[in-house]
Amino acid sequence: MLHLAQTHLTYDATAQDVSIFSSQGSVIVALLLMMVIEFQDRGVLFGWPSVNSTDYMGRTLRSSTHRSVTLIRKYHGYIIMWAAVFTFWYHPMENTLGHVMGFVNTWIFMLQGGLVYTDMHLNKYWRFVLETWVAVHGAIVAYQTGGPTGYWPMFTFGFSALVVFTQLFTLPFWKHLPTWTRYVPALVYLTITLHTYSSLPDENGRLWTRLWEPIVIPLNQYFFALAICGLVTLCLNIESKFNASFIHKSLVQVEYVGCIIGFLLLYLTKIVFSWAYQYYDAQLPGNPMVYFVGVFTPSAIVASFFIKRLVESKV
């Protein structure tokens, strides 16, 4: 209600101060964490690797990411709630379909945070909705802003690829079906995708030249999810060495204050970066989203380690 009143008074919320890519980047980080959280149950592709996987690559992937996935499952809420609140206050409460779908997205994230420690928080069907809502929202916003010749296919088929190759296997009924059935949604998806792109011309009127579009989003999501696991593992190793040091044992209170300051500074860094990119109208090469995810992800992960130290502190 406060945000609705603010929209009618000043309209723009924080959109006038920070880059739109900061809002989108914060949500991407939340979605990346969801992928990591679900890894232990559904794997990466078509339910692989599962707990029963016997192949070398599957066993290696599960064993090498076990510690990082476990930690993210425990402390993910701090990052996801920041992402939801950040993007919530970025957008004015417009009455377009794209805005409505986006606000529903942030609201269900917030609702999930309010359901923590309840059975509903762990419900797989509900978690599936949380993670895949962006496929519909992204497609609608892309069409709304770019029209029929814009990049709506990239968002539609890019996020849908994540659904049929990975996210669909969050749902528990797949474990009771024959393995071959897991490939059916992907085959349907590929058929629809190829049919759609067969009539989608590029700016020069050529067909079949835009088939790279649906690949971009899944590749980035898989890469950054793996990078998160690697970063968390690195931080865990650094923490273990810190725990063994004399300084940690003798300066507990200093560490406690340092964790609070470090936590606040890291989140302040994200805000300043978001503002500076907008204020100075930065024109960096490549996709700006990569820069924001690249800044937000490590700062949020390290901030979570400060939270971890505060929670486990003996002070």
Q: What is the CA-CA span between the terminal residues?
A: 39 Å
Counting DSSP H or I runs of 4 or more residues, the number of helices is 11
Order of helices and strands: HHHHHHHHHHH
Global structural class:
mainly alpha
Shape: globular
Largest sheet: none
Number of domains as seen in the coordinates: 1
- How many strand segments? 0
Question: What is the helix content?
Answer: over 70%
| β-strand amount | under 5%
Model regions low in confidence, pLDDT < 50 over at least 5 residues:
none
Average predicted confidence as pLDDT: 90
Radius of gyration computed on alpha carbons: 21 Å
Précis, in short:
With 315 residues, the protein is mainly α. The chain has helices at 2-9, 20-42, 56-90, 97-114, 124-146, 152-165, 184-197, 213-243, 246-250, 252-279, 288-312.
